TrEMBL record:
Residues 49-146 form the Methyltransferase type domain. The keyword RNA-binding does not apply. This is Putative S-adenosylmethionine-dependent methyltransferase. GO terms for molecular function: S-adenosylmethionine-dependent methyltransferase activity. Keywords: Methyltransferase, Transferase. GO terms for biological process: methylation. The keyword Transferase applies. SUPFAM superfamilies: S-adenosyl-L-methionine-dependent methyltransferases (SSF53335). It is an enzyme of class 2 (transferase). Its EC number is 2.1.1.-.
Length: 212
């Protein structure tokens, strides 16, 4: 019961437990966020859209590299933490933090040079719909970087039960992305923490077939 409640909070942080979860996420996800942001190969001035930005740690890292960042999250509690963490860049107009849903992104077609999705694919009930929406907002030669903790590491975690989390190994993640209209540039297994393996996928939009 408690574990399931934690799983639900990770999916949608609310109230004081959600604020607490936000602080835990910032610490626990430090290395995955760093690895995923490195994989974006950011050039200053590029526009990055982050899906499920949580407490805004990756947003801060990307803004420090000169990117323009739009962070989307469904949780007011997370956006409040992300705004505090990124106040200076929000005031300067370099960072926008918006309440929203990842299957209806408040971003124009082709407006994102990069899309970042860290620890969010577990919650994609309609993964095809989310990936279609990412394809819509991603520029033609844009890059999607996605991080998940590997299924073999997560299986023992009581909060990540099947009711709240969908888990991925290398094969199922590659299948998810190619089924969603992306071509993998690479998929690396990384050390996400002590005894924890993660997967970092970098991919581009598959070309639209003229006869399709
Ligand atoms: C496990 S947290 C990951 C946060 C951050 N990316 C990190 O790795 O530290 C998942 C985040 O996705 C957000 N989220 C879940 N479902 C969402 C949806 N449908 N639309 C937008 N955000 C969503 C949650 O509110 C939460 O902040």
């Amino acid at each position: 019961m408690v574990w399931h409640a934690i799983g639900l909070q990770l999916r949608h942080p609310r109230g004081w437990p959600g604020r607490l979860i936000g602080h835990v996420m910032r610490l626990a996800n430090h290395r995955p966020n760093r690895l995923a942001v490195d994989a974006l190969e950011l050039v200053p001035g590029q526009h990055v859209l982050e899906l499920g930005c949580g407490p805004g740690a990756a947003v801060a890292r990307m803004a420090a590299r000169g990117a323009r960042v739009t962070g989307i999250d469904q949780s007011e509690a997370m956006l409040a933490q992300a705004r505090r963490r990124n106040r200076r860049h929000v005031v300067a107009g370099q960072v926008a933090l918006r309440l929203g849903q990842w299957h209806r992104l408040p971003v124009a077609d082709g407006a994102a040079d990069r899309v970042l999705a860290v620890n969010v694919a577990y919650f994609w009930e309609d993964a095809a719909g989310v990936l279609a929406e990412i394809r819509r907002v991603l520029a033609q030669n844009g890059l999607l970087v996605l991080y998940v903790t590997a299924a073999d590491s997560m299986r023992g975690w009581k909060f990540a039960d099947a009711a709240t989390h969908r888990l991925y190994d290398e094969d199922s993640l590659a299948a998810l992305l190619s089924g969603g209209g992306f071509v993998l540039a690479d998929l690396r297994r990384v050390r996400a923490g002590p005894g924890v393996a993660g997967l970092v996928a970098r991919c581009r939009k598959a070309p639209v077939r003229k006869d399709a």
